Amino acid sequence: MIVRSKAPLRLGLAGGGSDVSPYCDRWGGNVLNATINLSAYCSIETLPGSEINVKAWDSGVFCTVKPGEATGAPLIDGVLARLSRDYGYAPGGLSITTWNDAPAGSGLGTSSTMVVTILKCFAELLDLPLGNYELARLSYEIERKDLAMKGGRQDQYAAAFGGFNFMEFLPEDLAIVNPLKVKDWIVEELEASLVLYYTGRSRSSGAIISEQQKATSSGNEVAIEAMHRIRQSAVDMKQALLVGDMPFFSKILGSAWEDKKKMADAITNPMIQEVFDVAIAAGALSGKVSGAGGGGFVMLMTPPERRVAVTEALGALPGKIVPFQFTNKGAVSWKL
Prior knowledge:
By secondary structure, the chain is α+β, with helices and mostly antiparallel strands. The chain has helices at residues 23-27, 74-87, 110-126, 132-146, 154-161, 184-193, 205-217, 221-243, 246-260, 270-281, 307-314, and strands at 2-14, 29-46, 52-56, 61-65, 94-100, 164-170, 174-179, 194-198, 286-289, 297-301, 320-321, 332-335. It folds into 2 domains: 2-182, Ribosomal Protein S5, domain 2, CATH 3.30.230; 186-321, Alpha-Beta Plaits. The strands form 2 sheets. Strands 1, 2, 3, 4, 5, 6, 7 and 12 form an 8-stranded mixed sheet that branches. Strands 9-10-8-11 form a 4-stranded antiparallel sheet. The termini are close together.
């Protein structure tokens, strides 16, 4: 039997960082994000025997192990360990293949989305009754608690639910996902206005997130006040999005980016600043880095009639423009 799954990557539009502990545990976090037509994938085939064959193209791990042995692909190992602990699953006789449409460290939630799609694939294989909330919550626990990987909470819920979502993150790991019904013309206008530029540099978000957590824990008033404004920006941007107020949307995007840079020194750098300088000189209005910062993808809000000028100007830099569309579909799985 062959089972496959996929889950969408996301653009963090506003509020990113307020979903990270200890901030959200004390003040609560608000995030606005949207999934796009780039995905993480998993395929599992049952085989004779007891060995586990792994081809993790996303992490560069290729191996065959015996039952109980670590594969060396941490996300797969984390899912297998949790399935063993919670459901008594003893894996064996499997071929597991994973791959991703975007590189790790790109700021689109690749690792968290991969955990969701691996877990979704095993849920299909084992007939586990995991709804979207259960899938996201369990994926969050695997990555953040079991594997102790730094990060927030929005990525897992975005991948599980899909679409445009306003999310609330409260103490005791409580998450509330509010799906938004965005009118078609607004989605079309937003797609025409947003330029997604890959800098060509992936980065590890762990150090940036650790600095952000330290600023919150130590009571850094400048950083905390900036994060309060970032949290509020998700509320304001939701209102702008629902009525199609693109000038206000763009203004919030730019203001939130200025606040984001106050959270950690490594969030921006000369390479990222050059991208902004070139794009704005060509007509872009505002932008932000998707994810923790430091590299990966940059979102640029651009009047549609200036889109070609902006993309041509960015063509002189080492990165590349990545076409995309928004998608409403969350994690899915199927059997062959």
